Amino acid sequence: MVRPVPAAAEVSDVVVKTLPFAVKSNGAEREAPSIVIGLMSGTSLDGITAAAARFTERGSRVNAELLAYVTRPYTAQQRERLAHALTGATPAEYCRLSFDLGGWLADAAIMVFSETGVSRRDIAAIASHGQTIWQAGEAAVIAERTGIDVISDFRVRDVAAGGQGAPLVPIADALLFADEVRWRALQNIGGIGNVTVVPPGGDTRSLRAFDTGPGVGVIDAVTRLLEPSLPYDVDGELAHAGTPDERVVAELLAAPYFAAHPPKSTGRELFDAAYARDLVDRCRVRGTKATSADIVSTATLLTARSIADAYTRFIPEPISEVLLSGGGARNRALVEMIRRLLAPLAVLRFDERFFDGDAKEAVAFALLGWLHLRGRPGNVIGATGARGARILGKRTPA
């Protein structure tokens, strides 16, 4: 069910969805449920997703029931402040932004909480990913505004244990979204692309995950450079209308990151605004007649081919299907390219198997919060490269 929500003064196009959903599993009677709100804001800088999920455990598997989720887009000014912080904000600007972002995250948590129909005492905690700018988003502000305990700063314990602090979603891919009998790849395409290779039954000892490279972050940046009136290539229409420059894509894929073996992670420190400008310049040098559509199509093919090449190089497992989630799963041109490059492998949208893929990563961080409350590890050492399993996150009481 989708209901429009009156926008706050500084917010536009808030989308609220309440979806009854449960991840199925066989087992005994369900234990007393626990509800956690997950907050996610990724490298694409498009906005905040909040998801309320009820978790129950059956044997070695965990059930997640998605009660509601909210998508709260950033305004142009908010996005500009976040982007500026990535490239060199002053200490004062950074601290102010972290407090303000805590308020924006709290707003999203309150919105989704109001949709759940449960009382505040039924919410065990809020699990906040924060923003990938040294994990900004002050947890104390969220706790103060919501009156609910907050678990945050999930990455640092893994880094302290010698890991890369990312990716962290694989634990959810294993516990919640594994197939019982087949290997499955869960490919998220946010600002950065990342894949989790999940064995049958979700055995974390055999699970692997790594960042494949750019997701929609470079596509979005190129689109805004060439067509400032567009926030991103809506539905992949520009890419559909253009012809990609294969030579530029091949040049960019020669960068060391793509050849590096997992575990590995990346972000805007590599695929930043300067990277997008370089892609545009390469296309224009190759052919001065390159149109905006051609250049956006080239950026789109870069993402698609980086995903396909990663599967060829680094995934020997006999995966039966790929499930796409994140903003890139809504880009028709990108999805078509990925399907063509991975054929005959089945490529589906995440929501064809589970719930709306826009909520997936917020649910994953809700699970990390649930695991923290139970004193259970949240990292997968085959994904991050840490020395061992660790309980992730820091708790800020309300």
Number of strands: 14
Uncertain regions: pLDDT < 50 for 5+ in a row?
1-12, 18-33
Q: What is the overall shape?
A: globular
Oligomer state of the chains in this structure: single chain
The radius of gyration computed from the alpha-carbon positions, rounded to a whole number of angstroms, is 20 Å
Share of helix, binned: 25-40%
From the helix content, strand content and strand pairing, which structural class follows? alpha/beta
Contiguous helical run count? 14
Q: List SSEs in N-to-C order.
A: EEEEEEHHEHEHHEEEHHHHHHEHEHHE
Q: Report the sheet-strand fraction.
A: 15-25%
Largest sheet features:
9 strands, mixed
Topology, pairings included?
Layout lengths: L1 E3 L10 E3 L3 E2 L11 E7 L6 E12 L2 E13 L2 H13 L2 H26 L6 E6 L10 H8 L3 E3 L3 H5 L9 H8 L5 E7 L2 E7 L9 E7 L2 H10 L10 H5 L4 H8 L2 H4 L13 H14 L5 H23 L4 E7 L6 H11 L3 E4 L10 H14 L7 H4 L9 E3 L2
Helix pairs in contact: 2-3, 5-13, 6-10, 6-11, 8-11, 10-11, 11-12
